[in-house]
Amino acid sequence: MSRGGHMRIGSKTSLLFLACCLVSALASAQSQPSEWDRIYRVLTSPRCLNCHTSTDYPRQGDDRHVHKFGVLRGQDGNGVPGAMCAACHGAINNAAAGIPGGKGWHLAPLSMSWEQRPGVAMTSAQLCFMLKDPARNGKRDLNALLEHNSHEPLVNWAWQPGAHPNGEPRQPPPMPHDAFVEVFRQWVAKDGPCPAQ
Ligand code: HEC
Ligand code: HEC
Question: In this predicted model, what pLDDT tens digit does every residue of 33-86 receive, in sequence order?
Fold first, then answer.
């Protein structure tokens, strides 16, 4: 009799314990950043934003200061005569001069600006809807965006950003490239959900 009583208490206790675990597991699942949250952190890193500006000039460095030498985007993002991007930026980083480089180095078009105003990144929802809008993203569907993020040389550059002229290394985005591609793939598999605006 007393044995059975203990048993009952024991199984009630373990049930209670299970319920606790479940509640805490659910709570922690909720506090995990979503795929899009993690993507947003990469897209808003200075390595990406400095080319995805809303202005007629690029930005430089982690403090995102206006590009020196009065560099301007020009009609197609390649600069203006006398200060073309390619006059300084090659297809690879120039370690001796501290000038970053990548194949076809130029500014993203204004339609692909990821800033809500000069120097300030779009909110998470703004950027998510912009990125998926074929009228602004170069007529890309989700798979084309995944392809771009996987193989585009100017995207890859962000993870091999080289060093500043003073030799100080530039910081890559906040997760490795393969992890970024994987989380982007998972987001695309869910049909690219965006946060509420
Ligand atoms: C050197 C400048 C430069 C850098 C750095 C750069 N981009 Fe871009 N990006 C461009 C240009 C130019 C285009 C337009 C390409 C086209 O449509 O053919 C573009 C377009 C894109 C697009 C297409 C859709 C859209 O809405 O913008 C994506 C996605 C993208 N870039 C992702 C990234 C990510 C992620 C990073 C950082 C890890 C990054 N880019 C860094 C220049 C850059
Ligand atoms: C007169 C030479 C020169 C010209 C022209 C030039 N750049 Fe630069 N650019 C540099 C140098 C040097 C740096 C490195 C600055 C540093 O790290 O302190 C740089 C850095 C950058 C960066 C910063 C990368 C980062 O994340 O910190 C971007 C973006 C950039 N340039 C884009 C452009 C674009 C786009 C053009 C053409 C519209 C252009 N540049 C034209 C010399 C030039």
Answer: 999 999 999 999 999 999 999 999 999 999 999 999 999 999 999 999 999 999
Residue 145 in tokens: 């965006």
* Chain-centre distance for alpha carbon 41: 5
Q: What burial class does residue 42 get, using C-beta atoms within 10 Å of its C-beta: 0-12 exposed, 13-18 middle, 19+ buried?
A: buried
- Could you state, in order of their start, the residue ranges of all structural domains in the chain? 33-71+109-189
Q: What's the chain's Rg over C-alpha atoms?
A: 23
Distance CA 53, CA 66 (A): 10
Distance between Cα 98 and ligand 1 center (Å) = 21
Atom 37 in ligand 1: residue holding the nearest Cα: 48
**Ligand 1 pocket mutation, candidates 51, 103, 129, 157, criterion most atoms within 8 A of CB:** 51
Burial of 153 (0-12, 13-18, 19+ CB in 10 A): middle
Distances in whole angstroms, Cα of residue 119 to Cα of each of 50, 66, 96, 108: 9, 9, 29, 15
